[in-house]
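Lecture 7 notes: from sequence to structure.
We start with the chain below.
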Amino acid sequence: HYDILLTGPTFVLRAFDSGLYLPGVIPDLTTAVLIVGLSSPVQSIEQLNRKRIAVPPNKGAVAKMASSFFRSKGVGDNDLPQFINYAGHNAAFMAAINEDVDAAFIAEYGYIDAISNGDSAKEIARTKPFPGIGMIISSRLSTEVREKIISAMLRLGDNPQGAVVLKKISFPPFRRYSIQEYEDVRNYFTNIGSTSSGKK
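Predicted structure tokens for the same chain:
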């Protein structure tokens, strides 16, 4: 039982459910993006039924939410794509644009990084915004201590040393968040066992 954890949304939800942790701060909301190569004929999610989709490693939130995302768009269990885990978001992106797979489902930051490096892809859909990495704080700490921790994190961007740290980890300044921001996308993280049918 740690006092402070910086972790992904699937664990954050479980931590809230346990009653052992309370909200701290997050850097910002994010999304997951479904993309295909520019030459792909795919224009809609339905065209990817039973196709091969590259996703990041299966322990991460984006890979875990892939099947729920397709279900939320009306795709039945028998028509779900085959999700293939790659070493990272960039590897999954490259697999899609090189047509090793039919599409990729990756985090928004991975998509932005790839585009900024000069690569191109066609966006088919994206999830609702959701908190990515979030800080949770043990409920056994006093309100005063929790507030001091939160205040320190909120001030990181206000001093030169803190700004350097944020830039190094590619985070915007932190902000407070509510449990509801995670609850709004809980359905993406239901049945969060591995969706993988392969690995690259």
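Points to note: The chain has two domains: 4-29+131-188, 32-127. Confidence is low (pLDDT under 50) at residues 192-197.
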